[in-house]
UniProtKB/TrEMBL annotation:
Family matches, as Gene3D superfamilies: NAD(P)-binding Rossmann-like Domain
Name of the featured protein: XdhC/CoxF family protein
Superkingdom of the source species: Bacteria
Pfam family, one: XdhC_C
Residue stretches making up the XdhC Rossmann domain: 77-218
InterPro entries, alphabetized: MoCofactor_Util/Proc (IPR052698), XdhC_Rossmann_dom (IPR027051)
Residues forming coiled coils: none
Organism field: Sinorhizobium saheli
Length: 234
């Protein structure tokens, strides 16, 4: 790989940005394309598919033999609330390939005994996220039902363009949440991105079933996310 391509790829990794390296097998040249930027029209469909699936592979386009190598940041799941659903998510999320962290300032709930083997941050989301900001490759699940704990990370996730923002609660609870966010100055189009009630509608009842529904919705959002900028002329 040429030095310039390698440098671009390393910079993308450091910034937790997704990149696809398209290598021309006939001459050994390589080009790096970042998610959210414009792609050459003849490559746009293949690059977009690579970003969404995460799978590398060869492809022949306009007589050229190309290889698409995909470099995706490890997706993260940040759960707000050390609750029963979070306990189940802590078991399921790593199996699906997600790094997970749980944030809850309520030390009675956020205990190592209840959350063994998962990163647990017993502090206010405002303080945690100031040092560890969210990004486009993070899913946020707000699970406490407490506006004092949930509302700030929801706003932060929308601002960071997290690929998934979900919030636990009934439609009535969410209507009150929407009004609070609106009064806080959050744009209507951003508020519409919140998945609430959280999780796919599979009739889930127990905390474990709700966790499955939430994780399935997160995976769907990751694999069908808006790439932004694809298909344009580079």
């Amino acid at each position: 790989m040429e030095l310039s391509a390698l440098q671009a790829l390393n910079a993308a990794r450091a910034a937790r940005r997704a990149a696809v390296v398209v290598s021309d097998l006939s001459d050994g040249t390589a080009r790096v394309f970042l998610e959210g930027t414009s792609f050459p029209a003849e490559l746009a469909k293949a690059i977009s598919a690579a970003f969404l699936t995460g799978r590398p592979g060869p492809l022949t386009i306009e007589g050229r033999s190309l290889f698409f190598n995909v470099h995706l940041p490890p997706p993260r799941l940040v759960a707000i609330g050390a609750v029963h659903i979070s306990q189940a998510l802590a078991r399921f999320a790593p199996v699906a390939g997600f790094d997970m962290a749980i944030i809850d300032p309520r030390t009675a709930f956020a205990t190592a005994e209840r959350f063994q083997g998962v990163e647990l941050l017993a502090d206010w989301p405002e303080d945690v996220l100031a040092a560890r900001p969210l990004d486009r490759y993070t899913a946020l699940a707000a699970l406490t039902h407490d506006p004092k704990i949930d509302d700030y990370p929801i706003r932060a996730a929308l601002q960071a363009q997290c690929f998934y923002v979900g919030a636990l609660g009934s439609r009535r609870t969410h209507a009150a949440r929407v009004e609070r966010l609106r009064q806080a100055g959050v744009a209507a189009e951003a508020i519409e991105r919140i998945r609430a009630p959280i999780g796919l509608d599979i009739g889930a009842s127990s905390p474990a079933e709700i966790a499955v529904a939430v994780l399935a919705e997160i995976i769907e959002a990751l694999r069908r996310r808006d790439l932004g900028g694809e298909g344009g002329k580079a």
